[in-house]
């Protein structure tokens, strides 16, 4: 029988935005780069199979992107549509009161849905960060949610052959983002009820939302809504630090991989890792290496053996005694 | 009431990693904006940004009759001091920090201010095993000690903050910072209590004020608010009404009542002038509410320690 580890189709991709200018409120860490420069950097990342391309920033000229994909041999894992530009979406995008803002967000997502197949991808991702609020009494939740649901319905009905993966994040740039956790995404998916609507589970966002990502993945997969994953980590203090996967939540990460393995996740491991003073090649290379090593460690532990141990209630001591043997053999 | 200032950085370009809300503005435009906010008595100036042309700066201060609450020394700069300034492994960088702070101390005196505040955001870590903490504290103590010795008449305030842009800054809360100041032992080294930073690191701001004042380290106060999860720099009292009132009450008790408050408020989609007008109005209202507390009665209530009596009393003031 073929080992499950050999059957997995897990591939690694990077979000192109993380190959260009990186800055936060206080500091600018990395300069702006052209698409050519971004591809050049991506092709230097060891173990990278694909690239998630940002629309509109990186896809103003689709033939150029096509050429660069061909030249580098990278696969386009998804088109990531950016609907948070303050020039248009200052007061919301998909949930905005202004029909102009809503229509613009819907049109941009549909444009992304047309570009994705041209690049060989069947998936559009978006993180609707403009749809949020800072203060109590700032937005009317009932009407804002109705508009959000209607807008998403309109987007996904455009063409069913391209999937839309919504990425939740608890906050930033506002204190509250509407699509803040796995429960709300599942609620939205249920309300819209379209087969091509699902989730991009960003592991760091899940930690920032105080979730166990393995549980979130299990919930999403039970409803067929886990379309894509962004790999990273953080300190779970609320900050979306985009750190190297497993650098903080080592056991949680192993649990996540174990869950994805057992439930048969077949999508990409995309990713967003903040590089700060490291360059993207070094930072993202380390991220891939970490995830690969954790997968290897998991294979040594045996997901089925772990599942067996978990069948018994109150078995935590035995489980950790079993798992830790693989870090330090012996008693 | 304490005088009110705006930190000039918040009158210019406002952005975060996702959005650009406000475009950069010249120093003159910043002064003009601040002058439109009724109730503002002065500015917290930012170094180096506001000091390109010291002559012009002086002219503007006179023209608008603005006081200076403090000079904000940026210890994090894009393209410089990448791995920290006063905790840098490089002795040259640490000396640069000392030299620059000394220069700014001289400038402060020239402008009639006796206070420098710095928020050491980039001195800290992202990952485990990224920094030798023991050495970092030694370097920090050495550099701050040298800077403070330059002129004891100028107070240097460390504005603590738990994180951003580092996942953990070296000075994350009131206790750590007070302890560090005592370790250095310089009489002119103290703390800027930013109420938002205190709230999101899980403190009761009034309690932090009391601790810092006890240690003779309560040097300066920044006002803003947040949801307790992140440093959103929101309008004062938009989330934590009672925390504000309690802090104002204690600042009165502790004698911080003839000084400055500086607004550290982030104007996002709302107009900058409107944002600070609201900040002034809200601060005054919170102070008015605080003043309604009968201090004698409160002292008695604090002796009783009975929230079933105290909370209804507080609500009766609304």
Brief digest:
The complex is a heterodimer of chains A (331) and B (318). Chain A is α/β, with parallel strands linked by helices.
How is this structure best described in words?
- The complex is a heterodimer of chains A (331) and B (318).
- Chain A is α/β, with parallel strands linked by helices.
- Chain A is built from 13 helices and 12 strands.
- In chain A, α2 (35-43) runs parallel beside α3, α9 runs parallel beside α10 (250-263) and α10 crosses α11.
- In chain A, 49% of the residues are buried.
- With 318 residues, chain B is α/β, with parallel strands linked by helices.
- In chain B, α3 packs parallel to α4 and α7 (205-214) packs parallel to α8.
- In chain B, the strands form 3 sheets. Chain B has an 8-stranded parallel beta barrel with strand order 1-4-5-6-8-10-11-12, surrounded by 5 helices. A two-stranded antiparallel ribbon of chain B has the order 2-3. Chain B has a two-stranded antiparallel sheet with strand order 7-9.
- Chain B has one domain (3-316): Divalent-metal-dependent TIM barrel enzymes (TIM Barrel, Alpha-Beta Barrel), CATH 3.20.20.
- Classes of the chains: A alpha/beta (331), B alpha/beta (318).
- The A-B interface holds A 22-28, 84-86, 90-91, 129, 134-136, 171-173, 175-176, 234-235, 237-239, 241, 243-244, 247-248, 276-277 and B 15-21, 76, 78-79, 82-83, 121-122, 126-128, 162-165, 167-168, 200, 226-227, 229-230, 232, 234-235, 238-239, 268-269.
Comma- or semicolon-separated keywords:
heterodimer, A: 331 residues, alpha/beta, TIM Barrel, eight-stranded parallel β-barrel, 13 helices, 12 strands, globular, B: 318 residues, two-stranded antiparallel ribbon, 11 helices, 16% strand
Count of individual helical segments of chain A: 13
Query: What best-fitting shape of chain B do the alpha-carbon axes yield?
Result: globular
CATH superfamily heading of chain B? Divalent-metal-dependent TIM barrel enzymes
Which percent bin holds the helix content of chain B?
Answer: 40-55%
- Reading off the top of the CATH hierarchy, the class of chain A is best stated as Alpha Beta
How much strand of chain B? 15-25%
CATH topology of chain B: TIM Barrel
Largest sheet of chain B: 8 strands, parallel, barrel
Poorly predicted ranges of chain A (pLDDT <50, ≥5 residues)? none
Count of separate structural domains of chain A = 1
**How many individual domains of chain B?**
1
Q: What would you call the quaternary organization? A: heterodimer
DSSP strand content of chain A: 15-25%
Provide the residue-averaged pLDDT of chain B.
96
What's the architecture of chain A, going by CATH?
Alpha-Beta Barrel
Distance between the termini of chain B: 20 Å
Number of helices of chain B: 11
What do the pLDDT scores of chain A average to?
94
